[in-house]
Specification:
Layout lengths: L36 E9 L2 E6 L3 E6 L13 E7 L2 E7 H4 L12 E8 L4 E8 L1 E9 L3 E2 L13 E7 L2 E6 L1 H4 L2 H16 L1
Parallel strand pairs: 2-11, 5-7
Antiparallel strand pairs: 1-2, 1-8, 3-6, 4-5, 6-7, 9-10, 10-11
């Protein structure tokens, strides 16, 4: 583990490398009907397959050496020291309203970069297992369902058809919204004080 997938998803090393689509909130969805191909990192979480645009993924590291932070929501597992930077780690399963991820041999932390042009943040997400990097054509991406998913509809950027099955493509900017997470942490503090 500990491998860097940043360059694997960015031929030529740049964020706007030719041949990769850069549209949609997650920075990975190709424009509808354009026929462009985008790359996605797929991973397992509570038995479901999810995908996130490779342009958001910085690296994948082994789970471990987490420092817990008291009085945080259950989905915030703690922080890690990543080459001198403090990176918060979020349990996606708990963020989606489920149970905390049970740590196993294949559990890992995917370091994801989110934000806008002025401000970027690295956030780690705990996943059960990383699968592979897949290329998905824009023609093979369906809109997010309005109901029936196990997670909030606004967390879904689309449904990718891969090998006859659907993979949930996450809108990682919404899932890891720094403002929403800060608000949830504040609400929890207020609830404990009352």
């Amino acid at each position: 583990m500990g491998q860097v997938v940043q360059q694997a998803g960015r031929p030529g090393g740049g964020k706007n490398a030719p041949g990769l689509a850069k549209a949609g909130a997650a920075g990975g969805l190709a424009a509808a009907g354009s026929g462009e191909i985008a790359q996605y990192l797929t991973f397992l979480l509570s038995g479901e397959m999810y995908a996130v645009g490779i342009l958001n993924v910085k690296e994948i590291i082994e789970y471990g050496q987490l420092t817990e932070i008291p009085m945080m929501p259950a989905f915030i597992r703690g922080v890690i020291n990543l080459r001198g930077s403090v990176v918060p780690v979020i349990d996606l399963s708990a963020r989606f309203g489920g149970q905390q991820t049970e740590v196993s041999r294949r559990t890992c932390i995917v370091i994801i970069e989110i934000g806008n042009e002025e401000e970027r943040h690295d956030i780690g997400v705990v996943v059960d297992a990383v699968s592979e990097v897949l290329e998905v054509s824009a023609a093979d991406i369906e809109p997010a369902p309005s109901f029936g998913a196990k997670i909030r509809a606004d967390f879904i950027d689309g449904m990718g058809k891969i090998g006859g099955k659907f993979v949930i493509i996450l809108d990682i900017q919404r899932v890891l919204s720094v403002e929403e997470i800060a608000t949830l942490a504040t609400v929890k503090d207020v609830a404990k004080d009352s």
